[in-house]
Amino acid sequence: MPASADLLKELRIDRSAPPPAPPSRKRWALLAVFGGAIAAIVGAWAAMGHGGATEVETAQVTAIGGSGGGNATAVLDATGYVVARRMATVSAKITGKVREVLIEEGQHVEAGQVMATLDPIDADAQRALAASQVAMAQSQVGSIDAQLREAEANVVRLNGLIKQQLVSRAAYDQAVAERDSLRAQRNTTQRQAAVAGNQLRIADQNIDNTVVRAPFAGVVIAKAAQPGEMVSPLSAGGGFTRTGIGTVVDMDSLEVEVEVGEAFIGRVKPKMPVESTLNAYPDWKIPGEVIAIIPAADRGKATVKVRVGMNVRDPRIVPDMGVRVSFLEAARPATAQKTNPGVLAPAGAIVQRDGKDVAFVVDGEKAQLRAVKVGRTLGDDREVTEGLSGGDTVVVSPPESLADGARVKPKAAEAESQ
Predict the structure, then answer these.
(1) Its pTM surpasses 0.70
(2) Which stretches of sequence are listed as region Disordered (predicted)?
């Protein structure tokens, strides 16, 4: 019996105990906890660069200086352009209509080679008129010469008769005067014939002016006229009249013009060795030397223009190409400490983070934050002495939200894929 009583007590309901929580509320609480954890994980995942890639503009870092065959060290770098010392836009000396154009872009021409011809109708008519005037003047000279011979013979005959007192003195004087008059007329007609001859030579020159020739040997870089168009050495017809046939460049006269800041012009000397690097061929080092330092400064830009020659003649070098010039000096003694020349990076790639100069380097698909030490400003670039190496790819104008390790996608790569 006692065992049965205990069993009955266990079955009795305890009214004082709190009721259990409904199962549905426990389920919602667990889901809320797990949802918050998942959201935190996703946010951390995106913050670590595992979300969508940020599109950025990138550029490559360029090493400064170097060595000129191991015997020279760069003391200054500057940017400029390839220019031609001999370049001419060839035009006709007269106004006329183009009959034929014998050049094309990229064609090599020799000095004196015919580039175009103009319609010579007017010039031919002027020459025919000048030739007729020459013939008329020569015929007048012949007529005067015949009359003069007769007058001289008459004077000689009357001179003998006057000694015999067979003619009067007045008749003799009249014959002498007629002879002298004919001599003066002959001189006048001879000068008129000479003038007519000069006019004929001018007419011949006008015909030659209808032929446009190359002033020197070079390459045609522009063709400006077509058959049927009017050309003139002056803009006589406003915008409807061409002033040139084509542009010729002497490729042997190519050189480099760079602008050096006033603060660094003291490092540049005439005949100083240099190395030029074309933007189109960054691995090609072209040796040369300083031709001249132009003795004038640009007040607005605080720069001085320097002419640089190139010791290489190559068809890859064309006018208006961008070029970077490294001015070299003799190598220092071997015992001297070698300094790091640094690199050049776009000025927009250097930004401030927490009061420090930093740059974002693209490594694969991520952007790595690097602290840098900057130096001079060279045009649109900044000298970086620490933190970057030649060949690194940096983010230009990185957004404020870009963090270390974030995924990035270069815009250039996207444009190429399209």
Answers:
(1) no
(2) 383-418
